[in-house]
Amino acid sequence: MKPYVYITRKLPEEIIKPLQQKYEVNMWEHEDIPVPKDILLLEAKKADALLTVLSDSIDERILTAGKNLKVVANLAVGFDNIDLKAASRGGIAVCNTPDVLTDTTADLTFGLLMATARRIVEAAEFVKEGKWESWSPLLLAGQDIHHKTIGIVGMGNIGETVAKRATGFDMNILYHNRSRKPEVEQRLGLAYASFDELVKKSDFIVCLTPLTAETKNMFTREVFKKMKKSAIFINASRGPVVDEQALYEALVAGEIVGAGLDVFEKEPINAGHPLLKLTNVVALPHIGSSSIETRVAMMQLCIDNIEAIIAGKEPKTLVNKDWMPLVKA
Ligand code: DGY
User: Fold this and answer.
1) Separation in Å, CA 209 to CA 54, 280, 305, 312
2) Of 4, 8, 39, which is closest to residue 20 (Cα–Cα)?
């Protein structure tokens, strides 16, 4: 019997064709509707491999149901949607898609910073809505980016690549991370700061830290209160790192100038959400890594990892380093 691979979201035919020659492949037929939990559970029971997306909750129930399950390949660098401990206990390898998305996600993050600072979305809508009546001295005047201080929270590969972008804008660069990165500090001219210091000194606070028990809700009302009144907050990591109500209150109270958000506490965010009513919020639908080239590379990496595990080889990008394969059917 061929190994069974279940893919939780519709992917392009040409991507999965090579898989279909070797394995039995089944795919959820929708591109933009998540697979219901009960179907995912049934599929996990049969599957040797799951190719998942970040909105699928791959919890203990799914993982223990997967009696033959050997690998979960998640189409994201983040893996907070997967219970890693349960996966390791079940001998299931968890793989993600780092590296291939680093530059693309850094581009989007810096683009979001620029859009928020220079009010690009608001200005574009202003023109399209026919509101432009004359040139005026302070029309849609935003904040400068060049020579300002950017504070990057989370100095992983994406953080480092955003810092590299910031050097091109002659920015003063602070960062906060669990561990210091002396080599990166030297190469890119970054200064390490405590979280408190970074929050107080930065003109742009850019959140790129993964979601963990420690980082959940790290941006509270107290934290926003410490920021400069002219500060702009950018989040391109995971929504739950921020207390969204606190962010809303800080924006309304004028404690910060604006926010650029690619991620939200609950995704997709409801169109009626109060944050979306604010003109100083630029909101994107979690598209950090979404260029065609990068998304295709991410899909390919998931497939490479699935193929490796099924063939009994080392996967390219294993997340649960304590994983030990169990003998399964
Ligand atoms: C990831 O890969 O974790 C990103 O959030 C996707 O854009």
Assistant:
1) 16, 23, 25, 33
2) 4
Please indicate, yes or no, whether residues 211 and 147 belong to a single structural domain of this protein. yes
181 & 142 share domain: yes
Q: Are residues 113 and 229 in the same domain?
A: yes
Q: How far, in Å, is the centroid of ligand 1 from the Cα of 157?
A: 13
For the stretch 213-239, pLDDT in tens is 999 999 999 999 999 999 999 999 999
Identify the residue whose tokens are 């790290």.
218
Q: How far is the CA of 78 from the centre of ligand 1 (A)?
A: 6
Ligand 1 centroid to residue 218 C-alpha, Å: 19
**Cβ count near 8 (within 10 Å):** 24
Q: Which domain holds residue 29?
A: 4-100+292-310
Amino acid at the residue 165? R
Q: Is 158 helix (H, G, I), strand (E, B) or coil?
A: helix
Low-confidence spans in the chain with pLDDT less than 70: 329
Q: For the chain, what is the domain count?
A: 2
3-state SS, residue 230: coil
pLDDT at 329: 62
Q: 């690009």: which residue's tokens?
A: 120
In this structure, the answer to whether residues 43 and 123 fall within a common structural domain is no
Residues in the chain: 329
CB 43 within 8 A of CB 173: no
Tell whether the torsion through CA atoms of 136, 139, 142 and 145 is positive or negative: negative
Q: Which of 9, 119, 165, 238 is catalytic?
A: 238
Say if residue 184 is in the same domain as residue 214.
yes
147 and 42 together in one domain: no
Please count the other Cβ atoms lying within 10 Å of the Cβ belonging to residue 25: 21
Catalytic residue, chosen from 165, 286, 295, 307, is 286
Helix/strand/coil for 237? coil
Check whether the bond before 285 is cis (ω within 30° of 0). no
Indicate if 137 and 198 belong to the same structural domain. yes
